[in-house]
Each structure stands twice: as structure tokens, then as C-alpha cells.
Amino acid sequence: MASDAHQKTPVFQTTGLTKTYHQGEVDVHALRGVDLALYPGELVVMLGASGSGKSTLLNILGGLDIPSSGQVRYQDIELSGASDRDLTRYRRDYVGFVFQFYNLIPSLTARENVIAVTEIARDPMAPEDALDMVGLASRMDHFPAQLSGGEQQRVAIARAISKRPQVLLCDEPTGALDSATGILVLVALERANRETGTTTVIITHNASIARMADRVITLSDGVISGEHRNAVRQNPRTLSW
Ligand SMILES: Nc1ncnc2c1ncn2[C@@H]1O[C@H](COP(=O)(O)OP(=O)(O)OP(=O)(O)O)[C@@H](O)[C@H]1O
């Protein structure tokens, strides 16, 4: 992406973000003050140990959860304190999600799983174009049970990008996959980011994946403990782990 990324206005800006879960007598401080800016079109990999707060942060950025305190702004929409209705509209209009498990509808083909999203989106791609972008042009009429795990994940990516989301949030998208299959999923995500300009965040435990990012953010114990920018994005096809 352009080296002037930091001159641009952030897509997301969080300030002093905290999230505390109350479990009986115990308070779990999942986020303890996160200040983060994400810029248009960048591909960010988020690393951190289990329990460091990655999913909590992603869920707040995606409007699936709200912070306990602090601000989170998407463009000019204030997400902290938004109503459930506003968050639902925000997710529908702007956000694509990819999770570790693909959540495809088993009784629908790959194409029909994508159509389930495109028929309610405002400005969708053709479902076939979304599936082509993830390398599944020849598998459109297969049912999930007829596809490998990696192929199912690529259908989930096609479904997420088919509504042309401004933001693509991916929580351990290769977590259930072996290395060779995971790489095809990362290739699909990188291509979607590059060709559609969707601001992309990928959570992973796998530090090798960080080399495909514009920027790498590390969370530890609910705060950002590290951040660096890669001089070049490594092609995910050449990653190994
Ligand atoms: N709904 C919840 N209720 C109570 N505690 C929660 C809840 N969600 C997360 N937590 C706790 O908040 C902390 C951060 O969790 P989070 O899932 O954000 O971490 P993570 O970095 O994504 O971990 P992992 O890599 O294992 O998915 C953990 O201690 C977790 O147990």
C-alpha cells in the first residue's frame, strides 16, 4: 500500500479502549486501554498470546461487542455507546467477518451461500466474481460437505467480500487448517485486500503470517505491546510454517 498511509484519515480510531468481563466475583480485564488507528486499505496482522485480547478487540471493531470504556470510531460513526440497532446496521453496511470455523449453510451450494449475502446487500459483487476471486470458480455448485476445509474457508471469504465491505475482520482464519491449505486462504485474503481495497485485519497465533502484512500489531495482556511496519508485503504463497 502507499507509504503515505499515515497521512490519511484513519478508518478506525480507538482511544483508551477497555473491556472488562464480569464472571461471578471475578473481573477479567480483556482490554486495558487500547489506542489504535487503522488506515484505509491496509492489511494488518494482529498477533498475541492466547487471552491477550485479540478477539475482544476485533469484536468491538466489528460492532459485535461494545467496550466498557473508551472510544471506538469507524469513520464518523461512534461505535462506543451505539444502540444494538445501529450496530446491526453498521455491521450489515460496512463489515465482512471471517472466523476460524466457516459457518456455511450445509444445505446450500457455495454459490447459494454467497447469494444469501448478496441478495440483501446494497451494492454486491456478482456471487460468481466473489468465488472466482478466491479461486473457486470451478467449485461453485458444490455443497460444503463436498469441499475441503480450506475450500470451505474460501467460500466463507467469498461470502464476506461479496457485499464489498469497507472492512474485513478475520479471526484465526487459518486456525483449523494445515499449512498448505492455510496459505491458499491467505492468498485469497491478500487478493481481496489488494483488489477491493477493503481494510483488512487478520488475527493469528502464527508469527510467520505477519510477513504478508503492511503492519503488525502485537497485543499482550490487553494492551498494544508492539507495532511495526513491513518494508514489503511478502507474497503469502512464499510463506511457510
Ligand atoms: N464473554 C466473555 N466472558 C468472560 N471472559 C471473556 C469473554 N470473552 C473473553 N473473555 C476473556 O477475556 C480475555 C481476552 O480474551 P480474547 O478472546 O479476546 O483473547 P484472544 O487473544 O483472542 O485469545 P485466543 O488467541 O485464545 O483466542 C481472556 O482472559 C478471556 O478468557
From TrEMBL:
<feature type="domain" description="ABC transporter">
    <location>
        <begin position="12"/>
        <end position="241"/>
    </location>
</feature>
<keyword id="KW-0547">Nucleotide-binding</keyword>
<dbReference type="InterPro" id="IPR003593">
    <property type="entry name" value="AAA+_ATPase"/>
</dbReference>
<dbReference type="InterPro" id="IPR027417">
    <property type="entry name" value="P-loop_NTPase"/>
</dbReference>
<dbReference type="Pfam" id="PF00005">
    <property type="entry name" value="ABC_tran"/>
</dbReference>
<dbReference type="InterPro" id="IPR017911">
    <property type="entry name" value="MacB-like_ATP-bd"/>
</dbReference>
<keyword id="KW-0067">ATP-binding</keyword>
<dbReference type="InterPro" id="IPR003439">
    <property type="entry name" value="ABC_transporter-like_ATP-bd"/>
</dbReference>
<dbReference type="GO" id="GO:0005524">
    <property type="term" value="F:ATP binding"/>
</dbReference>
<dbReference type="InterPro" id="IPR017871">
    <property type="entry name" value="ABC_transporter-like_CS"/>
</dbReference>
<comment type="similarity">
    <text>Belongs to the ABC transporter superfamily.</text>
</comment>
<protein>
    <submittedName>
        <fullName>ABC transporter ATP-binding protein</fullName>
    </submittedName>
</protein>
<keyword id="KW-0813">Transport</keyword>
